[in-house]
């Protein structure tokens, strides 16, 4: 293997992949060079290439242990690397936080796990048996003769945090779409609080949220929760004014809310959120809350705020603001209200409660990128390879993280990110979970887009998910739609991570829907999500009409897609009738009757998690997002037609029947 090929491998630059057509694709050397150059490597500098190869390969054998040592439960062995001629020495391990000090003698008797030859010396890797360590991260010191090394031991459970092995029913929502009881034009934590009560009464165990990440208050039209400013911070627009203690006895706030011409909930009749108006009005109200807190907040609350700022100091430092105390206050309020909602779920007997959603990346214009810029590659963004829906591939425009920099400070960035998104919830869905293994990078090649897969430290990132899920008592769902490497699917299953299936895409080779009983058990099953049309809209072809209306497709393509949709509808009707011998559905059956029959049918599936989408229960026709559009369609703005209470009242018998099916 030549030096450049070795560096491609050590740096995670992919060599090949299997296209959706089954075609075997090998990346050109030029493409791979461009990917490496995005990591700051001069591919024409032989000396730099040799130095990096030495650092990433040979040098790892010259220290007793790496910066991070993975100790997997229940085997509990610590791997160390020693020069074979030093095997007569004893090894001492000290873990101060656990008050553990161990000595290992007769090192020469340990069977080598691996070997490496360097400068005529043989280095060997051996496994030292440890006692059981609690799940977590522990600084440790290893010493052998005159040699010593510090390492951080990660004690890793076999699986992520698990809940009782039974079927769970839940609701998936986009929080901003809820009809706002306060008339402020956007769903907030108080609406979520009321929704938790409705869900609990219907014996639901969880609510799957959209990403709650910080967006752009100074550019409110950037509304996508999957293109955030910062994934470790919360979007203040979700703060409910009336839930804040600082709204009590606050006449200035009362006057403002009365005078700013906000409509009452019953008078609201909007289809899309006006983010510019909502942001202006809510931030004006936030400032009146903050002033009241500064002037009349109790000492206990002042102390609570100070403690919050201290605990979240590193994350809060990423806020780009001219008023740091005010913006820290908003994060405190948002965090407190999220905790309140989750606690309300648990108090009402919901097994999981809230499930957060982690976006795959952040916006280049945002604070996460600007404050962590050294972690990111140069001029590479993430996307997806060609697929049937995008023959030229997709470029999501999110800056790509350099896999080699993720290890900085013992993976502090990723650990903090996962912890922030598991905090105050009962579960975490990870959008595009393949990212912990590989991501498709997009970059420029002679004024045209090029791309390849780049691989990430899979074992370490998976270990963080396992550890953090136990420390935070949060289940983990990995969104694995699309082309997923076999090793990722196997790891999800063996690690107890739920996969995520959309029924629309669960097909056999002949394009018929898979048998219900063949659906995965370790799975979050959904009929639809934010990237596909709501069911009624799908059945009535509203999404296809919209695409033609917005000139995304022409009349010929529209007719072609309508014919394909009709075939899909017939397959769906056949699926329902085959699963339920008493069913007599047809293409002429009412759309919501078809949806209800499908939901009842899927409720009997083996999948342990089954989520209904509130948009489907609301009989929505408009999608919340049309993938591939930005300015053409008002993505991430469509609100629900009815209140949550009305939706649950209208669907009470259906929800009761589904619950009965799940537990029958």
UniProtKB/TrEMBL annotation:
Alphabetized UniProt keyword annotations: Carbohydrate metabolism, Glycosyltransferase, Transferase
Record-linked SUPFAM superfamilies: (Trans)glycosidases (SSF51445)
EC number from the UniProt entry: 2.4.1.25
Catalytic function, reaction form: Transfers a segment of a (1->4)-alpha-D-glucan to a new position in an acceptor, which may be glucose or a (1->4)-alpha-D-glucan
Entry keyword Glycosyltransferase: yes
Transferase as UniProt keyword: yes
Annotated Pfam families: Glyco_hydro_77 (PF02446)
Stated family: Belongs to the disproportionating enzyme family.
Name of the protein: 4-alpha-glucanotransferase
């Amino acid at each position: 293997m030549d030096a450049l090929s070795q560096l491609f491998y050590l740096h995670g630059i992919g060599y090949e992949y299997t296209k959706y057509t089954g075609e075997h694709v090998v990346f050109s050397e030029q493409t791979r060079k461009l990917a490496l150059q995005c990591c700051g490597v001069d591919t024409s500098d032989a000396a730099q290439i040799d130095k990096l190869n030495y650092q990433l390969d040979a040098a790892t054998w010259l220290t007793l242990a790496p910066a991070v040592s993975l100790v997997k439960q229940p085997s509990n062995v610590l791997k160390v690397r020693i020069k074979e001629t030093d095997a007569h020495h004893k090894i001492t391990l000290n873990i101060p936080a656990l008050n553990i000090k161990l000595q290992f003698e007769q090192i020469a008797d340990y069977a080598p796990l691996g070997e490496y030859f360097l400068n005529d010396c043989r280095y060997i890797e051996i496994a030292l048996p440890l006692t059981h360590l609690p799940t977590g991260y522990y600084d440790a010191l290893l010493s052998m003769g005159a040699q010593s090394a510090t390492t951080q031991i990660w004690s890793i459970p076999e699986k992520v945090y698990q809940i009782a092995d039974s079927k769970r029913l839940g609701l998936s929502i986009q929080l901003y779409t809820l009809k706002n009881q306060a008339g402020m034009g956007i769903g907030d934590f108080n609406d979520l609080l009321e929704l938790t009560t409705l869900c609990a009464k219907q014996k639901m165990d969880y609510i799957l949220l959209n990403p709650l990440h910080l967006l752009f208050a100074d550019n409110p039209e950037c509304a996508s929760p999957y293109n955030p400013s910062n994934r470790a911070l919360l979007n203040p627009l979700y703060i409910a004014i009336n839930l804040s203690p600082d709204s009590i006895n606050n006449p200035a706030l009362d006057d403002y809310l009365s005078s700013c011409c906000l409509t009452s909930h019953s008078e609201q009749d909007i289809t899309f959120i006006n983010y510019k108006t909502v942001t202006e009005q809510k931030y004006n109200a936030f400032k009146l809350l903050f002033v009241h807190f500064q002037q009349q907040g109790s000492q206990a609350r002042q102390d609570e705020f100070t403690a919050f700022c201290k605990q979240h100091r590193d994350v809060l430092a990423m806020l780009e603001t001219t008023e740091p105390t005010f913006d820290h206050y908003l994060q405190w309020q948002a965090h407190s209200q999220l905790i309140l909602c989750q606690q309300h779920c648990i108090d009402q007997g919901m097994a999981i409660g809230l499930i957060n959603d982690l976006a795959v990346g952040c916006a280049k214009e945002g604070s996460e990128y600007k404050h962590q810029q050294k972690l990111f590659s140069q001029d590479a963004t993430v996307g997806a390879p060609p697929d049937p829906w995008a023959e030229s591939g997709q470029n999501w425009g999110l800056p790509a993280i350099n896999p080699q920099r993720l290890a900085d400070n013992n993976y502090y960035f990723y650990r903090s990110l996962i912890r922030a998104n598991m905090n105050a919830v009962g579960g975490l869905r990870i959008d595009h979970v393949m990212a912990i293994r590989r991501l498709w990078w997009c970059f420029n090649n002679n004024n045209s887009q090029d791309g390849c897969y780049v691989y990430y430290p899979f074992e370490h990132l998976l270990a963080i998910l396992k550890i953090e899920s136990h420390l935070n008592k949060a289940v983990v769902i990995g969104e694995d739609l699309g082309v997923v490497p076999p090793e990722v699917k196997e790891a999800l299953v063996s690690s107890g991570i739920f996969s995520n299936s959309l029924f629309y895409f669960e097909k056999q080779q002949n394009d018929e829907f898979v048998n219900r009983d063949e659906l995965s058990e370790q799975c979050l099953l959904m009929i639809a999500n934010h990237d596909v049309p709501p069911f009624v809209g799908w059945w009535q072809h509203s999404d296809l009409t919209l695409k033609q209306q917005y000139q995304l497709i022409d009349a010929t393509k529209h007719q072609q897609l309508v014919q394909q949709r009709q075939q899909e509808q017939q397959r769906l009707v056949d699926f329902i009738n085959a699963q339920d011998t008493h069913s007599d559905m047809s293409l002429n059956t009412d759309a919501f009757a078809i949806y209800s029959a499908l939901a009842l049918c899927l409720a009997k599936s083996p999948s342990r998690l089954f989520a209904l989408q509130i948009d489907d229960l609301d009989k929505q026709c408009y999608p919340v997002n049309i993938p591939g559009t930005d300015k053409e369609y008002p993505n991430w703005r469509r609100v629900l037609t009815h209140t949550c209470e009305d939706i649950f009242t209208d669907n009470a018998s259906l929800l009761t029947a589904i619950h009965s099916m799940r537990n029958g």
